[in-house]
Amino acid sequence: MASEEILKAVKEALDEKNNKKRKFVQSVDLVINLQDVDLNKPENRIDEEIELPKGRGREAKIAVFASGELAFKAKNVADAVITPEQIKELAEDKKKAKKLAEQYDFFVAEAPLMPMIGRSLGRIFAPRGKMPKPIPPDADIEAIIKKLRNSIRVRSKDKPTFHCLVGREDMKPEDIAENIEAVLSRVESKLERGRMNIKSAYVKTTMGKAIRVI
Q1: Cα 201 → chain centroid
Q2: Closest C-alpha to 11, from 205, 207, 185, 200
Q3: SS3 153
Q4: Would 60 disulfide with which of 11, 98, 105, 195, CB 3.0-4.6 Å?
Q5: 82 pairs with which residues across the strands?
Q6: How far apart are CA 108 and CA 80, in angstroms?
Q7: Helix 114-125 and helix 84-92: axis angle, to 10°?
Q8: Do 78 and 89 sit in the same domain of this protein?
Q9: 182 near 57, Cβ under 8 Å?
Q10: Predicted confidence (pLDDT) per residue in 94-118, tens digit
Q11: Is the pLDDT at 1 greater than 90, yes or no?
Q12: Residue 67: count of CB within 10 angstroms of its CB
């Protein structure tokens, strides 16, 4: 259960005075500002896949790089299945590869295909934080995708300020607050001095005012 401070901030961010109604359902983001962390050192950077306890509000879109039996199984549960032949095609069409990287939230790949994906698509996928998660050919693809549907990727790169999705404005404030608590807890666990390395955190809708959480 989320703290009262976080819940209060979420309610304030969703309140009409800070969140003018739009013609679309806005995302709710958490903005985190770090302090006293040398992000020039790759080992100090945050790069986490976090399953949100109350979901994203809208499930993540998943694409799977696979062949044979895994590709067959994935067709029933993934949003897209990309074969080895298609990887070669994407390598020759950067515009198409970039579009693919933006189209899906997560990519999963049959482990033996990873070297090929790295060579062909690494330059496009890696900077966007979209390199596929490798899995064995006999993995339970249904369970993996089910978990990813409610997950987010949190990346600080080399900058002290970064943001991530924690829900949508049509979710209950209590659920969004619980998601924020989960994200902050994971980020803290990866920082040398925990909460002391977080300068501040804000919650906001896509077009709304940022409200301080911590």
Answers
A1: 17
A2: 205
A3: strand
A4: 105
A5: 65
A6: 10
A7: 30
A8: yes
A9: no
A10: 999 999 999 999 999 999 999 999 9
A11: no
A12: 17
In the structure encoding, which two tokens stand for residue 76, read together?
A: 């029933």
Is there a single domain that holds both residue 43 and residue 74?
no
Predicted TM-score (pTM) of the model is: 0.93
DSSP-derived secondary structure letter, 147: H
- The answer on 175 and 130 residing in a single domain is no
pLDDT category at 2 given cuts 50, 70, 90 is confident
**Residue 45, pLDDT score:** 94
CATH value at residue 163 = 3.30.190.20
Q: How far apart are the first and last CA of the chain?
A: 16
- Do the beta carbons of residue 52 and residue 166 sit within 8 Å? yes
Question: How far is Cα 36 from Cα 193, in angstroms, rounded to an integer?
Answer: 9
Write out the residue range of the structural domain in which residue 126 sits.
Answer: 62-149
Our CA angle for 40, 44, 50, nearest 5°, is 130
Domain boundary among 94, 128, 149: 149
The contacts found for 186-194 with CB under 8 angstroms, 24 or more apart, are 186/48, 186/50, 186/154, 187/32, 187/46, 187/48, 187/154, 190/46, 190/48, 191/34, 191/37, 191/46, 192/37, 192/44, 193/36
- Quote the mean pLDDT of the chain: 96
> Whats the size of the chain, residue-wise?
214
